[in-house]
Amino acid sequence: MTRAGPTEPTRRDAMPAGRHFLQIPGPTNVPDRVLRAVDRPTIDHRGPEFQALGEDVLAGIRRIFRTRHPVVIYPASGTGAWEAALVNVLSPGDKVLMYESGHFAALWRKLAGRLGLEVELIPGDWRRGAEAPAIHDRLAADKGHAIKAVCVVHNETSTGATTRVPLVRKAIDDARHPALLLVDTISSLASIDYRHDEWGVDVTVGGSQKGLMLPPGLSFNALSDKALEAQKSARLPRSYWDWGEMLAPNAKGFFPYTPATNLLYGLREAIAMLEEEGLANVFARHDRHAEATRRAAAAWGLEVLCAVPEEYSSSLTALVMPAGHDADRLRDAILDRFDMSLGMGLGRLAGKVFRIGHLGDFNDLTLMGTLAGVEMGLAIAGVPHRKGGAQAAMDYLASCALPASGAARAA
Questions:
Q1: Which of 1, 64, 281, 292 is at 20 to 30 A from 177, Cα to Cα?
Q2: Which of 222, 221, 204, 211 minimizes the C-alpha distance to 282?
């Protein structure tokens, strides 16, 4: 038997050893329990076995959204749920107020315009969430109540900044305005505390591929009584997205068309995992990992993009590159050397930031592997920084360990 000598070149197309670190802010890593749940034979979606599955997931997802109202599940990406939220409550030419908190808020605005809505955009600096005072002032000036809906993104995936939704609700109420409140939780649901009913949200948009720990392919609209009432007079064209078509069969656990059966198996398992850990513990775990990441950034001397500490995201952290250095070059170096994917800068942030996802099925060792890879990558790419970021994060994690039950689940 011959053995490769020390100078034999490495095949560049060979599969790297070890696991791929998928540390973008979604899609996230899918846990084994969910993968095993999805890996089942497809069943009759009109039969009693599916009916039991449908009833389980439709009840369980309401608990995740913290609502007593219906939650509609679509076989679609989050973009589909954006469209469904709009077409079910609005009519052609209706005015919608949106806040430009980042790239995904801008995309939702673009979609609304294509639907024939009149969009008024409050500009933002992409470093904070939607500002409630600005929303209040615009609504207070709308004496004729031309604005029919306010749309905000709870957790802006492109920036790592959250919107304080209860303050937006208060701004609408203080302005004595009847506008509906629509909120995107695609990168915050099951990662950051969110309360559909308590916060007075009319339509909440969600997706499967982030905090819910599923593959892409499911999206959600959580509803309110006010939203259901608005649907009765809404005149935007809708067929596939029609809540009414969904809600009637949903009442008995069924869907009006062929559902994504195997993803629903995964959803049932993901809900079970979240509830075994406890939502409060899930949120605390995400808070803790986000704080550890920010401490690493501070030690490296890198700036967190979000400029308002009260709005720091617990799903991801976006870090600003030093002047003259390209974030994509850093990301490429880390992917090449360590087989780790980090989030790119989107829109006006392209090349200027990189994003570290720390959400979903994620524990202390995963975070430390991620931060070690970033620190080594900074050195490899020649990015000015101080050493010790990974150590700072490790010191923080060691000083505030999870309770035994949470640690066991997160592991």
A1: 64
A2: 211
For CA atoms 319, 322, 325, 330, give the dihedral sign: negative
Q: Record the tokens describing residue 303, joined without a space.
A: 């700036």
Percent of the chain with pLDDT over 90: 93
Name which of 183, 186, 194 is nearest 283 in CA terms. 194
Question: What are the Cα distances from residue 144, in Å, to 95, 140, 179?
Answer: 12, 10, 11
Question: Phi then psi for 139, rounded to 5 degrees?
Answer: -70, -40
Residues 6+ apart with CB under 8 A from 32: none
Q: Which two tokens stand for residue 185?
A: 């939780």
- Report, as an integer, the average pLDDT of 387-392: 98
Crossing angle of the two packed helices 279-300 and 261-277, in degrees rounded to 10: 80
Instruction: Evaluate whether 97 touches 151 at the Cβ level (below 8 Å).
Output: yes
pLDDT value, residue 181: 99
pTM, two decimals, is 0.94
Q: How far apart are CA 143 and CA 149, in angstroms?
A: 15
